[in-house]
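Hi there, hope your week has been kind to you so far. Do you reckon you could talk me through the fold, stretch by stretch? Thanks so much in advance, here it is.
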Amino acid sequence: MADLRDYTSLRVGGPAKNFVEVGTESEIVAAIEAAGDSPILIIGGGTNILVADSGFQGTVIRIVNHSLQAEVDACSGATLTIGAGENWDEFVKTTIDRGFAGLETLSGIPGTVGASPIQNIGAYGHEVSEFITRVRTYDRQKKAIKTFTNAECEFSYRNSHFKAHPGRYVVLDVQFNLRSGEISTPITYAELAKKLEISVGDKAPIVATRKAVLELRAVKGMLLNPNDRDSWSAGSFFTNPIVSPEIAAQLPEAAPKWPTADGRVKTSAAWLIENSGVHKGDKHGGARVSTKHVLALTNAGNATATDIAELAKEAQQSVMDKFGITLETEVNLVGLSL
């Protein structure tokens, strides 16, 4: 019986009733079918998940396949099909080393390629949905392979068709289209532009952009490091809230506000948390708000899943009391809730 704390970046979580590692598409499908109608939990890097101390009373399937198919055109770029178990950042590094632009601002995000479309991961002004052309999945309900085009994935901010139908689709591989080039698209995030010593809207070499992103993430404790307890986290615990213009207008002038295409306003979860009375280093049992970034909740060394959930509740309640906004979790909660 595997303890899930050994397979998650938060290093918490109880035992799995059944646990299997799979490395090929046929093994993935066979493991799903063997589980029958019992609950299954698909994990890759275990970096965006908080599992209850009681564990998981079903089958945990850990996908570790590393398949790659590539079609490269000297003019238009590359179409790359990547297995779900591939490490995300290693994939990003490979694309940049080969001269393909697009994913540089998504450097350093922990996890696997298969998880990237589910969460529609993003950072520094870009989301993975900009580069995905299709996602191949196994549909547990119809017991068949189902391929989704980009439009069918229904991508939105930190969301997708797959996330909206939890447990139904298991990602097998993801296809990306990247352009050839050594220069990024315009850098729209002021923090990254400052790090690159350019103006917002300017472009930068993709190699330098990746380096800057990794350094910024490291300063925030958002790069996995076994020697840094601040990185014993699941990354950003909450998503940035998207609120109505009326609610946004009630926020202090200093609160970040980014208009969205649908007329609403996105604001910063980190700013809300920090300005609601939560501080870096605050603790609940063995759980701690990162000493580097309030959006990361960490295992200070002996935390339980309950400790981390309670700390999250405190941050959530603090923001609600101060600003009337409910923070939504970015982390996948298994066997517990806020």
Remarks:
- The CA atoms of residues 61 and 190 lie 40 Å apart.
- The chain has three domains: 4-63, 68-217, 229-334.
- The first strand starts at residue 16 and ends at 22.
- The mean pLDDT is 94.
